[in-house]
Amino acid sequence: MTSNDLVVVLPGITGSTLGVRGADGSPASANLIWAPSAGAVWRLLTGGNSILKKALPAGIGDAAPDDGVEPVALMPDVHVLPGIWTPIRGYDVLIDALEALGYKRDNGAKPPNLIAFPYDWRLSNRYNGERLKTVVEPALERLRAQGGASADARIVFVVHSMGGLVARWYIEKCGGAEVTRKLITLGTPWRGATGALEQLVNGVKKGIGPLSIDLTAFSRSMPSLYQLLPEFACISTAGGYAKTTEVSVPNLDTAMVADAMAFQMDLQSAESARAASRDMTHMIVGIRQPTATTVELSGGKATAYQNFGSDNDYGDSTVPLTGAVGLGEALDTNIVVRVPEQHTNLQCNQFVLDQVQEILTAKPVRRRELKSVSVRASVPDLVTQGSGLKVAFDLEADDPDADPPKVPVTVTVRSAKGKVLATAQPTLRGGHGVTTFDDLPPGTHTVTVDGSTPSSLVRPVTSTAVVWPKPVT
Question: Where are the membrane-spanning stretches (predicted)?
Fold first, then answer.
């Protein structure tokens, strides 16, 4: 059963395909420069149509360059820019789940009540928030023009990761509050992500690790990536923790750092001034995964740590819990739904999809039985073929005073098409397990840590890893 509202889905950073208008007048969809299949990420980065050739000019601010690049569609497949953001699974599962509820992008003669909004994720979230207005408000007017139950339709946003920043800017700064009913955020960095700071400072340069390309200039040209910088104090200093605007951050454009902080503070001020912001928001966050939370700056480099002093709040492996909880709420706020899952898979997690269904329909859905053992998994984003993919994990009972669970666990590696490539059942010692897969083919694979039997009560966690081809000698 659907509501009568317009549902709008926004992906995260790198989650929209990009194309270039052809000199022959062909549309951007016919000239894709960012649409990597799970098995060919490296070809999109190193080929003739590499997205890396579209670094933004200095001082771009909130404008768009005249480089012909246009957003085309939501990514259906696993996508990653190594060293810029974590691998993320595509959005087909989420879109399919919404269409199963009765929301339609193609509604025949009737206006659609589901929109998938791709955007140029290189650009400022302010720019994309303004562009969002030009798409969703005409669509809402067409829906309302049907009359009847649709006459008072409003917008419901279902957003993943950075897509939440775009939607929030539209709602609070572009007049969207007047037509928005609900904002459902999945892993959105409401206060930023420490990993973005580490990646921007350190860069990704030729000859480091498995990469034979240089992503540094491209990543540092993106206002959107700067706007993912943590607003909270996360830089370790002799006097405690400092914000990015309170210390000198090496290798970064000082003006872009200051502008990113202003972006965060403008949003927070607008939300604080509008009480309805809290009432309309549903935050769904990933928890219990090893996550960069603080950094130490030394010698022009950033070293990330998972803790604030002796405290480790974890997160979803990409966004720390401190960055994931917004609206000035405490980490134990009652308006957040917490799911033991990684950032890469939140929009595909079945419990998350159940939550979205309930929020949209306001109808109770039968919950799958909640299992009682959580997994905290560490899986590298990127390894070279032949070097081995090491998967480490810890089991944690819901009762913090209980002994580490003694349940059988299976680690499964699947290809992008779902084919099982390898499995292992590591021996557990004190709830900790480690296994290494040595002979994986190149490609983008999913790694799932789950119970070996349905009765083992382990909540599965899914990660994504790119196996980079061995260099040809």
Answer: none
Q: List the helix and strand counts (H, then E) for the chain.
A: 11, 21
Burial of 327 (0-12, 13-18, 19+ CB in 10 A): middle
Using alpha carbons, select from 463, 473, 468, 470 the residue that is nearest to residue 87. 463
Cβ contact 455:334 at 8 Å: no
Q: Which CATH superfamily is domain 6-361 in?
A: Alpha/Beta hydrolase fold, catalytic domain (3.40.50.1820)
pLDDT in tens, 308-361: 999 999 999 999 999 999 999 999 999 999 999 999 999 999 999 999 999 998
CB 108 within 8 A of CB 364: no
CATH superfamily of 373-468: Macroglobulin (MG2) domain (2.60.40.1930)
Between 403 and 348, where is the model more confident?
Answer: 348
What is the number of other CB atoms lying within 10 angstroms of the CB of residue 416?
A: 18
| Same topology between domain 6-361 and domain 373-468 | no
* Local structure of residue 472 (DSSP, 8 states): P
Q: Is the pLDDT of residue 291 over 80?
A: yes
Do residues 79 and 88 lie in contact, with contact meaning Cβ atoms separated by under 8 Å? Answer: yes
468 Cβ contact partners less than 8 Å away, ≥ 6 residues apart: 42, 82, 210, 211, 382, 383, 384, 385, 442
Which residues, 6+ apart, have CB-to-CB distance to 356 below 8 Å? Answer: 94, 97, 98, 158, 184, 284
Count of C-beta atoms within a 10 Å radius of residue 334:
7
Burial profile 428-458: b = 16 or more Cβ within 10 angstroms, e = fewer = beebebebebeebebbbbbbbbbbeeeebbb
The ranges assigned to domains in the chain are 6-361, 373-468
pLDDT at 456: 76
Contact 407, 456 (CB under 8 A): yes
Please indicate whether residue 459 or residue 248 has the higher confidence score (pLDDT). Answer: 248
- Mean pLDDT over all residues of the chain? 92
Q: How far, CA to CA in Å, does 171 sit from each of 9, 271, 356?
A: 14, 9, 19
